[in-house]
Amino acid sequence: MKKVFIILLGVLVIQSGCKKFSEFQVDPNKTTIATPDLLLNSIEQSAFQSSDITAAIACRQMIYSDAVNLSQYYGWSRAGFGAYNNLRLVLKMEQAATAQNKPEYIPLARFFRAWFFLQLTQTFGDIPYSQALKGDEGLGTPVYDNQEDIYLDILNELKEANGEITSGTTAVKGDIVYNGNMRQWKQAINALSLRVLMSLSLKENDNEINVKKRFAEIVSSPSDYPLFTGNGDNAALKFYDLQGNRYPYFNNNDMQTTNYMEETFVDLLKSLKDVRLFSFADKAPKFASLPVTDFNAYGGTRGSAAVNENKTRVLAGEVSKINPRFYTNPTNEPSIALGYAEQQFILAEGVVRGWITGNASDYYEKGIGASMSFYKIDQAAIDTYLAQNTVKLSTGNPIQQIITQKYIASFFNSGWQPFYEQRRTGFPVFDVSGSGMLNDKKIPKRWMYPETELQRNQQHVTEAISRQYPDGDNINAVMWLIKP
Description:
Blueprint: E1 6-8, E2 12-14, H1 36-48, H2 53-58, E3 62-64, H3 83-99, H4 106-124, E4 127-128, E5 144-145, H5 147-164, H6 182-199, H7 211-220, E6 235-237, H8 253-257, E7 259-261, H9 263-271, H10 276-280, H11 307-315, H12 325-328, E8 335-338, H13 340-352, H14 360-374, H15 379-386, H16 398-409, H17 417-425, H18 451-456, H19 458-468
Antiparallel strand pairs: 1-2, 3-7, 4-5, 6-8
Helix pairs in contact: 1-3, 3-4, 4-5, 4-6, 5-6, 6-7, 6-13, 13-14, 13-16, 14-15, 14-16, 16-17
């Protein structure tokens, strides 16, 4: 589904991203002891690189024109357990912090444990949790925990992590995201808590998790639970014009030749007169003579349409590519994994749902403004955009508007978050009407468990499938999280 990480000696991760630490070697002049700062550096690269073409294709923002793409046509099957490799690295960081008396890394270990386990359970449903990462203790075939229990524990972990960071907490080292600023880490922890709680909106009446109470507790106590205050607090990965540290799609051939803008996404931006389109896309060749700021210069093709149909439109010059900066600029823009704009949309939805008091429109507009500012759109253009009746938050279907704006803001950041939001709310409506569609023209709800689990941990994965999915392990099965 996403990435594959290779672990060497249980410590080193080979991957792309930002500044890396050197591989340990047998050298009397070099340490062979893993330190928390070196491990943190690599963990951040894995967690916060959230610019993902596969997610953009599945979320009807981009298309692949040369062949049948299973993410585009919703014909995928299994995903992998690669996130457990990242969790092993988090465990190593926690162990090193304890052994070397550096408690400041412990709340960050809790944050990243929550981060990666959340990805896993959102992908599959029930997963190994309480017995995971205990192979050294003889638990090589861990049981699968219920998704409800996993969510409850993730929320409790994040609450503990928030409480462990105080004004006297020592700054961490090796931090390529916040440069050791522990208050910003505290804000990120609470922003993630809000994301987790909002993902549980269909479980708002679950008495054990107490979604509404937890949400209100965070929002009403800013001194105890500080939140992001602007784009400067974004949990984002920056890129540098250095080998191995450049933007992940720099000089990417597919991005230049076979990836194009999706029609429903382009039409959405046109209908709202959203100038972010000019930052996201290039003019279609057929309309190259038009000004960059003319909405008529941009076009897309449907993700659900057959490959031949899309090729025909591409060859006719009717379809825009992504903006060239995504493949020509080695630093381009930071990859936002969790940001201020998303947080504001979450708060707006919280008001609409009655979880907190406040002005939903104010939160909503701050979210839009933050997204547009990130794309370097000036305040005058932002004000003009927000003044439109089509953009103003209405009483008709405010959640649809909020999720739609969150979706636009997620372009080439936030990973699979827009897919999970669509799965939770039904917004925006992903087009499945074309003749190219697989999976009976249905949007999948999940991914099937890895083949390796059926080989190595058959008893426990079979038990997990049986208790969750009466029709078996399939991509249309509905996990606990999204059952009303």
